[in-house]
Amino acid sequence: MLVVMHANATPAQIDAVADRIRQLGYSPHVIPGALRTAIGITGNRGPEGRETLLMMPGVEDVVRITVGYKLVSRETHPEPSVFPIAGSRIGHGFTVIAGPCSVENEKMMIESAQFLSARGVKLMRAGAYKPRTSPYAFQGLGTEGLRILAQVKAETGLGIVTEVLDTDNVDRVEEVADVLQVGTRNMQNYALLRRLSKAGKPVLLKRGMAATVEEWLLAAEYLMSGGNRRVILCERGVRTFADHTRNTLDLSIVPVIKHLSHLPVLIDPSHGTGRAEYVPAMSRASLAAGADGLLVEVHPDPRSALSDGQQSLDFDAFTQLYASLKPLANVLDVELL
Ligand code: PEP
Ligand code: MN
After folding, report:
1. Closest ligand 1 atom to Cα of 183
2. What is the number of the ligand 1 atom nearest to the C-alpha of 184?
3. Residue nearest to atom 6 of ligand 1 (CA)
4. Do residues 297 and 263 share a domain?
5. Mean pLDDT for back-to-back runs of 10 residues, the chain (337 residues)
6. Does the pTM exceed 0.90?
7. Same-domain check for residues 271 and 141
8. How far apart are CA 180 and CA 319, in angstroms?
9. Which of residues 12, 31, 63 is at a domain's end?
10. Is residue 337 part of a domain?
């Protein structure tokens, strides 16, 4: 259920409703809005308690939310969510997050960060912990990678988006990261999601490679129901019969997410296609489809990359891509960030 407060409801009335919801044995989630406050209710199985809540001062209506992903849904929060993070505003305009797949060494990280920062990029991606299909492949630099990320942040002011692989590492990664990435393989790692629901940093939740939209939004609900409001979705391609690209980038998910949820949705055209030469077209298509931004892999020398070199743009290709997004953003009247 969702309690819709009057536009002029007082803070004391809002508190009283939240207390009443707790007395009923449910959890209140206060959602301030531009015009009015709403209070999401979780933990209830049906409309029990609706009548008592309706009679409370300041309450305009109590509506049933029909979907399972209650806090994630548009029904609960009709306005799109916008999260200001490290000089960017995810959910407002089109935010380009770029960087190498992995933190490989200090030199390539500083070089990449300076390059991206000079182009106006505010958030850099790079993994210190890598979920690799083969146990023999480069697994990331771990704590040394986190040290390098902290240095990049201190030297360039860029915000850091980096993956957290397991519950044991959350504290350590959270110290450095501005956004905690959950990879496709971990989308349904509920222990990790529960832990991240208590994190003080926003979470970028990639879509599982075989996840339906409902499974994905329910994974986001794990994060939100534990108290983390700042959830960013990211489509990175799914498994299909098609083998002409690494994954099948499902751009049709963008209008669906916009319809069902208030959360921002980014596109990862790098993992979505697996080939650098296909990344620019799908990036422009993401902007045209109404996505909130990109998570794109960029490397100073893709041929020598320790992971995902084939799908990484070099600096020239990124410069060209960024330039090609500008006129399109102008036509669409979307701010490019
Ligand atoms: C990545 O972003 O480098 C990554 C491992 O992504 P995914 O979880 O989408 O495979
Ligand atoms: Mn990668």
Report:
1. 8
2. 8
3. 183
4. yes
5. 95 97 95 92 89 96 93 94 96 98 98 97 98 95 98 97 97 98 98 98 98 98 96 98 98 98 98 98 98 98 98 98 98 95
6. yes
7. yes
8. 26
9. 63
10. no
Q: Say how many Å lie between the CA of residue 1 and the centre of ligand 1.
A: 35
- Is 25 domain-assigned? yes
What is the rounded distance in angstroms from the CA atom of residue 106 to the CA atom of residue 115? 14
User: What's the structural domain count of the chain?
Assistant: 2
Amino acid of residue 280: P
Q: What is the 3-state secondary structure (H, E, C) of 310-322?
A: HHCECHHHHHHHH
**Residues constituting the chain:** 337
Cross-sheet strand order for the sheet of 2-5: 27-32, 37-42, 2-5, 59-63
Task: Collapse the DSSP code of 225 into the 3-class scheme (helix H, G, I; strand E, B; otherwise coil) and give the result.
Answer: helix
Let me know if residue 26 belongs to a domain: yes
CB 248 within 8 A of CB 237: yes
Same domain, 131 and 25: no
Domain of 128: which CATH number?
3.20.20.70
Same domain, 141 and 11: no
